[in-house]
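Researcher: Please generate the 3D structure of the following complex. Treat every line as part of one assembly.
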Amino acid sequence: MSFYLETYISTYVFKTLYLPIMIKIVLAVAFPLVVLSAIPIVVWMERRGAGLIQDRMGPNRSNIAGYTFFGLLHPINDAIKMIMKETLTPERAKVLFYFLAPALVVIPAIMTFAVIPVAAPVEIEGVVIPFQVATIDTGLLYVLAISSLGIYGIMMAGWASGNKFSMLGGLRAASQMLSYEMVLGISLVTLFMIYAEIEPAAIVESQGELIFGFIPKWGIFLSPVAFFIFITAAFAECNRTPFDLPEADSEIVAGYHLEYGGMKFAMFMMAEYLSIITMSAVVTTMFFGGYQLPFLPSAKLHALAGPFISPFIQIAAFSVKTLFFIWLYIWARWTLPRFRYDQVMKLCYLKLFPIALANIFITAAIILLIS
Amino acid sequence: MSNKKYTKITDHFKDNEFINKNRPLTFLERLYFIEIFKGLAVTIKHFLYNFFNFSKLPTIDYPDKKRKIPASFRGRHRLTLRPDGTTRCVACFLCSTACPADCIYIEAGEYSDGNPNEKYPLRYEIDMLRCVFCGLCVEACPCDAIRMDTGLYDLADYSREDLIFTKEKLTSDYPPLKERGGAFNAEEFEAARALESAGKDENDKARKREKQSEGDIKNDD
Ligand code: SF4
Ligand code: SF4
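Model: Done. Output below.
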């Protein structure tokens, strides 16, 4: 039996046909799990970070036999509490859509991560292992398309709750996210032109090179304007402070998730943190060299550390960069006050949009001049 | 403490540099861009300072560590006892008459064994949910039978019934004098004061820490 298995494993058909599929399946299961289990850590970062920024300690009471693990147990407690809560349906809710909405918010938030490469593909005994769930030609357009699907869930939640505050929150979310979606896309066009690629893995590979021989060819050095526009739009995309108007508690109580309780509410929170993680990953991939270590492109790293260790080094590099941007989200939340709604719209259409367009033309002119 | 001082203070604040006057924003401020980084710098300064000086945070871990209360603190009541173990209370009803919250319930009983005090409370109950901790009952008592020097203040419970304190609870359920924060007479008060100033006090430490962190992080807006 084992002999049969061994010969089968070494066959050409297995190696080229079944093994890649199996690897993809493993990746497709592992990616969402890792991203989902990162949520409690992000929540923890947010709470303890908020505490320390505001000269408090942050939550540190929950413990197992006296061990608090720096307050890491609080998200677990939250999950238990949320799951045990009673399911309430408001009287005027449109039941089907009311229950569908949280799922529609979470699913796109997880899906976006599929095209992000977390390490360079390695070749072990003729089998190529990619560290990216889906390598599709549309690449980042997929990210933009899927992340904008989240709007449907939020609009649906706002409308189906049968509450005017929720409705207002949903409308705000819809108009804000649609407007910033556009700026987000346009700021990326600059990078597409520079890299002449829209596939994330290829973009990250080319970021391993150097400009003028000493600066890493990262997006932020190539087009800082695009970076700042992108990060502003990304904040607005995730409905995070200073753009958290859809859930502005001083005006519309809690906005679109006002009527949701228990696990359904938790799903909205999860979606928010998921989109923070994904957006941070996209920023890292596009502007900060993704998994590339500065001055050590993946080809060199493979030669140095071998195909078994180098993916781990690159995953670590990617995680550190992504964590920094997640921290930036949290950091900004406890720094900046919320905008007024007209300011949000003016910022988008009168400032960011023209700047992003001008950036495209200027970059195009420079590329023409150089080539 | 006169009006004069008050006007002086307002005069002082009239042209104070600390008051933010409404002024038009400068061009750089209107850009908002640089101001964001200034704000981020302020918050990260706090974060890093507190991260590396975690023990200096002014927070007291409440149920584990308690802030020591001042000696004159009016805490939960207790009923004092005579050396022979009977309650000092003679069920005169002065306390319940004085009580503005009307929360003391007394049922008087008579000694049958020839005790010279004749009366004692059969039932003595204080409804802690209504008590406003004014201390009038203590002042009214002619026999020094009720005191508020237990230093207890965390009076939370799960049912209303449990918060009506009976005679038994009032006579027994409190910490011994040495561990109490509160004081009743001058001697106890002085003793508590001495303890405080000897620097053994958590309070002082916390206060010191507060001052320190204020001093360290100066230029906040
Ligand atoms: S402290 Fe005041 S309110 Fe409380 S029992 Fe005494 S007299 Fe009544
Ligand atoms: S506690 Fe004092 S005032 Fe109140 S009934 Fe007893 S003796 Fe009288």
